[in-house]
Write a structure and sequence with these properties.
- Helix content is 66%, strand content 0%.
- By secondary structure, the chain is mainly α.
- 22% of the residues are buried.
Length: 116
Amino acid sequence: MGITNEANLRSILSQNIKRFRKMKGLSQEKLAEKMDISTNYLSDVERGRSWISPFSLVKLANALEIEVYELFRPQEKVSADVSATVSKCLEDFSSSLRVSFEKSIKDSMRKIQQNL
């Protein structure tokens, strides 16, 4: 699945959270506890029903012992141009921890769509 719109991005994020959580042998309850968030909130994020703040993304990545960008990496192959654009957007995101996560994602989506 490529990143072509917000719904796809949410799907990629939610699938990756669940995949990494299961790889680490963590229940939603244990992961939520490690992040100091509610299990219901984590469940909503994992199902793509809620967005997660940049600070919580960092906490999530730390709890899963991965880099933040790995949460947004599509599992199927995408073209080198799309992959490079996603990587650049995620580098910008993780290095500056933008104040508005929604704005960052929309900007990233616009850049990706321009390169398709």
